[in-house]
Amino acid sequence: MRAARLLAPLLLPLLGGCATFPALDSTPEPTVGQAAYPELLPLDELLAGVPPPPATDPAAALAARAAALKARAAALRAQDLSG
What we know:
Structural class: mainly alpha
């Protein structure tokens, strides 16, 4: 077991060396240089499309969810797992 712990860190990089990598030296397609630039919009127009934050406070829903998760955790702890 000890030998496996010592060999695992040495074998994992060797296993990574077997991976195939994409050819990064290839030239891009000719259409990339001729592509149109995206349309730039003023910030005011972009922010106008963002919905306003919710009017309700999310703290109550978050507290209820936390209480439900704690109750579920307590129920799981109370289970007898001895079989």
